[in-house]
Amino acid sequence: MRSIKINIIPKENGVIMKNSINVISSEVPKERTRNLIVVKNSKVRFFGSLSSPQNDYLLGVLLLLFFFVVSFSFAQQSKEFTASGLKAMGGPNNPKVEIAWNRYYDSKQLYEIMKRIEKAYPNLVKVSSMGKSVEGKDMWQMTISNFKNGNPDEKPAMYIDGNIHSNEVQGAEVVLYTAWYVTELYDEVEWIKDLLDEKTLYIVPTINPDARDYFIYKPNNMHSPRSGMAKRDDDGDGEFNEDGYDDLDGDGNIVFMRIKDPNGRFKIDPTDPRLMIQANADEKGEYTLLGWEGIDNDGDGQVNEDNPGFYDPNRDWGWNWAPRYVQYGSDRYPFTQPENQSIRNFFLSHSNIAAAQSFHNYGGMILRGPGSKSDEGTYSRQDIQTYDFLGQLGEEQLPGYKYMIIWKDLYTVYGGEIEWFYGGRGILSFTNELWSEFDYFRRAKDSTRDVSQQDIYRFDKIMLFNEGVVPWKKYQHPQYGEIEIGGIKKAWTRTAPSFMIEDMCHRNMAFSLFHLYHTPKVSVDSIIVKNLSGGLKEVTAIISNERVIPTHTFQDEKNKITRPDWISLQGGKVLTGGVLENRFLGITKEQKNNPERLNVENIPGMGSVAVRWIVSGGNSFTVKVDSEKGGKAEKAINN
Amino acid sequence: MKKIILFLCVLCGNLFAELPSKYHSYNDLSKFLKQLSSQYSSHIKVTSIAKTLKGNDVWIVTIGKGETENRKAILVVGGIEAPQLVGSDHALRFIEQLAQSYGKTDSITKLLDNTTIYVIPRANPDASESFFAKPLIEREINYNPYDDDRDAAVDEDDVDDVNKDGIISWMRIKDSRGEWIVNPDDTRLMKKADAGKGEKGIYRLLSEGIDNDKDEEWNEDGVGGTDFNRNFTFNYQFFGKNSGMHQISEVETKAIADFVFNHSNIALIFSFSSNDNLNSAWKNEPSKGDSPVISSVTKEDEDYFGLISKKFGEITKLKDAPKAVKGEGAFAEWAYYHSGRWSFSVRPWWAGEIPKSKDTSVVKDSTKKSSDMKKDDKEKSDDPNVKILKWYDTIGAKDVTVPWTKFNHPDFQNQEVEIGGVIPFVLSNPPADSLNNYSKPFSNFITYLAGQLANISLSNKKVEKIADNVFRISVDVVNNGYLPTNNGMGIKTRWVRNVRVMMDAGKGNSISSGKTKQILEPIKGSGGFKTVSWTVVGKGSITINAESPVAGKAELKIELK
């Protein structure tokens, strides 16, 4: 949805529409409603294959009756064609909550949007605070699930956050778009409905509200600040934040300073006078670059060496953490930052989280751990297979993005957020680096990493009409004398331009939704009862996992992070029970204690486990499975 | 006259009774600290840095006169290994000694006028309190609930006083599949059978308890918690026994770490723990493989660790210490490797010679028999506990072990079960009646340590007049202390600041060479120095200021004319 102004249909209309469609849905087989109809000027056309003529007839009559009634009363009848125009696939035509996905919001605006979504969809959304930031702002979190179908905290869930790095703002919009899309389309897209019926999304658009707002409202460049707002002594002189950037020209952007210098090594690029490039080795330059806009505020001979923050919130996690002589940006110890402590507490109190995603910028990457070579042993073959499946799916959904391993393909990271999710909690998790350089000109796939400064300036010129760059202008600097200030604005190069935001949001959301879809889904596949001599019965149950992610990743199982899945039998008196090590040979490993409730270490992705009990008495049996990350299911059999 | 004063001093000294030679419960300890801080309010302050899960305070005592927060300091920590009550009590006696000596002993008065000594006498009050509780359990961990066996039931199978004797000891179960035998060197102890030596196990050995949750494991998920000496960041073991949910996960450990990070004036940390580097100093070792992690002391620090460890021997006269333990998440190693402070640690007690004392007959006995002990040592046992029990025998101590006694255990109906073995705490804590004697050498040594910090001054000032209104100024920043102004890990971790020199050239004047503010590389002790110079254009008074939170400060005013 890019258009800002859309005619709002009276609310009553939408409500009645929904009720009417529900009436039809209950009359016809479920499959049929999926590819139901397209309505054009109150005429009905049938699409899809309807096997039985009687059904066709019944359906037709009902539909005609319905549309007759509706068109009589209201001007618009369908969600696909309303006064808002023809519905494009992949978004709501007539959303209850209008949001312009063409800009970046501050923390208060994000919160207001979250509340509007909650208000519009109270049965699907709950907004709560996860904790407080350094400056005392709330970290607002949304729980999204069909609340009328089970406790959301007991369904397999995915956690998604954005904006851990303050300047990497667009994660928040991607996350918020996800909340908006799944709620708006819950009633329209069956796949989404099933997803929210079965599973839960925990989303936090910004886990760093302080420095998000600082990035937006205070003078910064596109790289600052990366940190949160807790004060640190960056340069070890006993003073805190005493020499940050200075917005000399007061335009809100920290850009570059250059000084005319016949001995300088830089010159103006012949293709674009706004761009500075290095002089050739055998050529004289014209300028010296003096770095980012600023002055030496504290007289130590360095400029801008002690900005707000300093630490990196994504080096602050309790897995493979390293002190700052090893890992630049690490702070006192894991979870030094209160924001990260709140996320840790959320994970420790939500053992149903089976998937996690963090959004950063930029570079078009789908990253998985390990962050360092030394931690390679943590990532087992089994779990890598699952990672690969999802990562490769992501590459398909996200043209220009590459599925990569952090230490191998990017750089070494100790104590990263998603490394704790996996290493510390055994949860499969990715970091996406949003906004791919591929998107500048969408050239051949392998040129994604080949975007030059010239390309960026070219794009600015022919697509943004020079809006993205501050032109060089003279400035009288108190320490350097006459200099010039100019360069790329902070809201450009790391963040997608306005017209590409929605595309970025949707594609990344699609990746997350499939990740959530593939969190485990347990079911009781079958129960077989065999009569043994002496009135005893042998009850065998096959429990399956219908999704790709196992109920326990190997890291989880190996370190016993999540409790085993419980498979219990009701009916009759259980004498012995155990897990079948080989279903086909019938070899069982007995569980001596409490065989009524068997402990299963893991139910593999797209796989199954079989269990067997010897029971005396009882004719009807119920097998229940209860998995922290795979949900609950049961089946009964009457023998 | 002098004699009279001396005599009066002796009298004064006697007015202050020594702390009773007993172990202090949390309440006794709190009462003592409160009393001390009101009695010596000019130089003793007691505050709490954390409330434990049991509602106890982790006390910190600030010792020193004047602006204690803004000058160089050391931190002393007792009880980071909760069962070492003796270390915690040493810390109390150390505090008491300083409190009483201030204003009486010149060296102490001088020290406390310039240096701050922070003491956390009991890092883990909740766990240490088990020493005073019934049944007696040797508890290393706090009460933070933890599902040790990850069976979704939390703290469901703790130890139990099966025989109701008020002591949690051991159970040995006759079982041909067991791995244990009776220790031939001391039949009160058990020993793991060594198949290589043809020994065959005949016992299972378990801590005293019942299989409360019927999972055929005994005492595998006790109440709590985390062992603080396994919870710090250096060489931390994930999913390790009692190591906590992650590094510095506990209220208490976080409070202690934050206290250090918030006090940039702490130059040195002394702790009582098994991670002893005073009986055998930490050495520089070649780094392993391509790991960027530093796991042995830096080359430049090695000598200091070496010399101070030598001094420890000289001052305390202690020897024959048991082997040092290499830490996993240990506090003392964290203090050096991750907080960048000088870190010294030693066990608060081990079975050896009893220091000489004026009264107790027990001590005399042990001196007499110490030669016997040496003979026994030569026979050698692999189990260090054999030596400890022998030591208790020489001083005639009783109640060190519970005699192995048959017991009809409900979980082992058809097997012979005996309950007995070493009583909790005795292996790491001496009898209470000689605590005052044991603490003195440590108090003396810590006092010595506090006097070794870097201490800067400005000297060798030079002012050259180059022309009217142009002056070249230079000055040496000298370190008169023993330790350098920073150590190798302080620089690496950046948690310890170097000396900062500021030049205030005065109004209207300008600095034409040199900097207004500069940070100096570490300056070695024993008179090491760094020269700083400026060229100033102008006249009048200028001020040079050198400062480091861990090395003191100095100021110099110069008139340019």
Short description:
Chain A has 639 residues and is an alpha+beta fold.
Contiguous uncertain segments of 5+ residues of chain A: 1-51
In the residues of chain B, how many domains can be counted? 3
Strand content bin of chain B? 15-25%
Number of helices of chain B: 12
Helicity range of chain A: 25-40%
CATH architecture descriptor name of the largest domain in chain A: 3-Layer(aba) Sandwich
* Rg over CA atoms of chain A: 29 Å
Q: Name the CATH class of the largest domain in chain A.
A: Alpha Beta
Give the total of domains of chain A: 4
Write down the CATH class of the largest domain in chain B.
Answer: Alpha Beta
Strand line-up across the major sheet of chain B: 1-2-4-3-9-10
Enter the CATH topology name of the largest domain in chain A.
Answer: Aminopeptidase
Largest sheet of chain B: 6 strands, mixed
Q: Level of helix content of chain B? A: 25-40%
Overall, the morphology of chain A is elongated
Radius of gyration of chain B: 28 Å
Structural class of chain B: alpha+beta
Q: Give me the side-by-side strand order of the main sheet of chain A.
A: 5-6-8-7-13-16-14-15
At CATH level 3, the topology of the largest domain in chain B is Aminopeptidase
Residue windows where pLDDT falls under 50 for at least 5 positions of chain B: 1-17, 357-379
Descriptors for this entry?
heterodimer; A: 639 residues; alpha+beta; Aminopeptidase; 5-stranded antiparallel β-sheet; 27 strands; disordered N terminus; B: 561 residues; Immunoglobulin-like; 3 domains; 4-stranded antiparallel β-sheet; 12 helices; elongated
Write the layout of secondary structure elements.
The complex is a heterodimer of chains A (639) and B (561).
Chain A: H1 11-27, H2 30-34, E1 37-40, E2 43-46, H3 53-73, E3 81-82, E4 85-86, H4 107-120, E5 125-132, E6 138-144, E7 157-162, H5 170-184, H6 190-198, E8 200-204, H7 209-217, E9 256-260, E10 266-268, E11 276-278, E12 287-292, H8 338-348, E13 353-361, E14 365-368, H9 381-397, E15 402-405, H10 406-410, H11 417-424, E16 428-434, H12 438-441, H13 453-463, E17 469-477, E18 481-488, H14 501-517, E19 522-531, E20 536-545, H15 554-559, E21 565-570, E22 573-582, E23 587-590, E24 597-600, E25 608-616, E26 620-627, E27 631-638
Parallel strand pairs in A: 7-8, 7-13, 13-16, 14-15
Antiparallel strand pairs in A: 1-2, 3-4, 5-6, 6-8, 9-12, 9-18, 10-11, 14-16, 17-18, 19-20, 20-25, 21-24, 21-26, 22-23, 22-25, 26-27
Helix pairs in contact in A: 1-3, 4-5, 5-14, 9-14
Chain B: H1 2-15, H2 26-39, E1 44-51, E2 57-63, E3 73-77, H3 85-101, H4 106-114, E4 116-120, H5 125-128, E5 170-174, E6 180-182, E7 190-192, E8 203-207, H6 251-262, E9 266-272, H7 299-316, H8 331-337, E10 342-346, H9 361-379, H10 384-394, E11 401-407, E12 417-422, H11 435-450, E13 456-467, E14 470-479, H12 488-493, E15 500-504, E16 510-513, E17 517-519, E18 528-537, E19 540-548, E20 552-560
Parallel strand pairs in B: 3-4, 3-9, 9-10
Antiparallel strand pairs in B: 1-2, 2-4, 5-8, 5-12, 6-7, 11-12, 13-14, 14-18, 15-17, 15-19, 16-18, 19-20
Helix pairs in contact in B: 3-11, 7-11, 9-10
